[in-house]
Amino acid sequence: MRNIKLVIEYDGTNYVGWQRQPAHHGKSIQQELEKALACVLKQQYSLLGAGRTDAGVHALAQVANFHTTCNIPVEKLPIALNNLLPHDIRVRLASDMDENFHARFCAHSKTYRYHIVHGGPCSVFDERYAWQIFKKLDVEAMRRAATYFLGEHDFRNFSVLGSSVKGFVRNISRLELIEPGKTELCTHGNYGEPLLIEVSANGFLYKMVRLITASLVEVGRGRLDEEVLRAYIERTTPFHTMPPAPAKGLLLLRVDYGK
Amino acid sequence: MRNIKLVIEYDGTNYVGWQRQPAHHGKSIQQELEKALACVLKQQYSLLGAGRTDAGVHALAQVANFHTTCNIPVEKLPIALNNLLPHDIRVRLASDMDENFHARFCAHSKTYRYHIVHGGPCSVFDERYAWQIFKKLDVEAMRRAATYFLGEHDFRNFSVLGSSVKGFVRNISRLELIEPGKTELCTHGNYGEPLLIEVSANGFLYKMVRLITASLVEVGRGRLDEEVLRAYIERTTPFHTMPPAPAKGLLLLRVDYGK
Predict the structure, then answer these.
(1) Which pTM does this prediction carry?
(2) What angle do CA B115, B121, B127 make, to 5 degrees?
(3) Which residues of B, range 165-204, sit inside 8 Å of A by Cβ?
(4) What is the pLDDT of residues B175-192, one digit of tens each?
(5) Which structural domains are found in chain B, ordered by start?
(6) Which residues of B touch A7 (CB under 8 A)?
(7) Which of A139, B2, B148, B167 has an alpha carbon within 20 to 30 A of A60's alpha carbon?
């Protein structure tokens, strides 16, 4: 039995998210991929994804695997699938793995990037991929607050109750605020500044990245004190819930499997 | 009478082009802007655009002007218009000009950028903005061929007969092939190489940039000899017409008005 790993890129704008849904909810990435697989390999497969991305969330390198007895050369698979997939979903790589590989359970860490444009409007070309905040954010305060998230914490305050999960403790190994500067294209008009929030952890709770982002933005707006946020993270103060940052700014950057 | 200049950014994917069209042809950028202007200023205006972009062509800084007796503060105009405009059209700047300013007739030069990804697939995030060519192009041959276009030529071979024009002679002051290299995002899978073709001229004929691009790509594919292309440009050989490069790769980068 072969065990094939796929690396998948998608623009999530037009989808209800990664996970297969009842048809009337709309199209999911998983469902489009499974449809293409069935067509290429003449059999129904169930894809195991590294993680579920929400409606409107994008991915640069989502990972999924499936088991098959087919004998298609693995390097032909992306081409065959991409011929059938819609333009906003692309299989970037396919590789044969050993039988124990599991896209979700074997993942050591995942990295997400959240894209903000602040202090002015974003370009129309970023409209689908960025959260536009007209106020200029205090990035230094956000950077200080970001350090409080690092390490192992019970993140139940930074999740929305959804599917059942095994506990709320996760370990954030990296949370970085990157200011790439305006591109050379942003010379006409008062564009805002891009700000990227990159976060790696051994796992994420439902809406965790978008809630961390929302709380950092509250700090950056001067509406949430850094020490109060720290108390929320350490769960010494009852949490004042807030809406998560918009889905469209979020990108699953990569899934790491160690050596 | 005030004369107001607008700098406009748009993603042309969902439009029939800049120019107002009969309603059943679909929505145009000009029409969306005129509708928003009428709503803000309570009067019908006719916008004069610097140039017509085709269906599917994008703009970073299209320029248009209109005359008005309204007394709205000019810095308020982009905000008011953007509140009404669809997300893929944005007014970036508005400024009061002297009465003689005309977006088209006063333009000294226009610059377009054509975006190619070659030698592999493009990212789903470039899908709307790039021409994907699976073959690896010979960029050096294209660069040599590009120099033949420089200067004043009769470009009738590089235009499609559309609206009536005053002659076919145009002066290309710059035609550069830029290889920006893959972005840090293109690390998963065999992405192609980005190649930008930037061209500035005192004016462009209908589909001229897309035909120049198509002919350079033919050279890059090894299907058109550089010297044959030179003869086409110098009109010493009857031209073998070719389809223009796809609209979606084209971006109106800027319009220059001299001092």
Answers:
(1) 0.92
(2) 55
(3) 185, 188-191
(4) 999 999 877 776 667 789
(5) 2-97 (3.30.70.580), 109-256 (3.30.70.660)
(6) 188-189
(7) A139
